[in-house]
Amino acid sequence: MKTIFEKIIDREIPSTIEYEDESVIAFRDVTPQAPIHILIVPKKRISSINECKAEDVAILGELLLTAKKLAKKLKIDDNGYRLVVNTGKDAGQTVFHLHIHFLAGRDLNWPPG
Ligand code: AMP
Fold it and tell me: Model pTM?
């Protein structure tokens, strides 16, 4: 069965896409936790960091470079942003398709809740 993110990748459900290339898609989170809240998602189905393999090194790097591109595009590279990867139950992961939360546009508390 497809994950909700695969349905977004396949245009079966709508989303606001901020960036896309052959291996990565980035779209607005439907329940934003900050004025800017984007999910950076590999098109390859990887459930979480726990399932990453050596062969995934390139795509993992591309996810981080996508964050840099988004920051520049949205002109928040100077102000800053936070990248979060929830992994597993204790971290509150709800969608088991690897994703980076890109959060910006307000002061972000530390430590996080
Ligand atoms: P996590 O809890 O780290 O697994 O994050 C999953 C994120 O996916 C949550 O922040 C949800 O708000 C977000 N989400 C779930 N469904 C959608 C959707 N259809 N479009 C955009 N974001 C979604």
Answer: 0.98
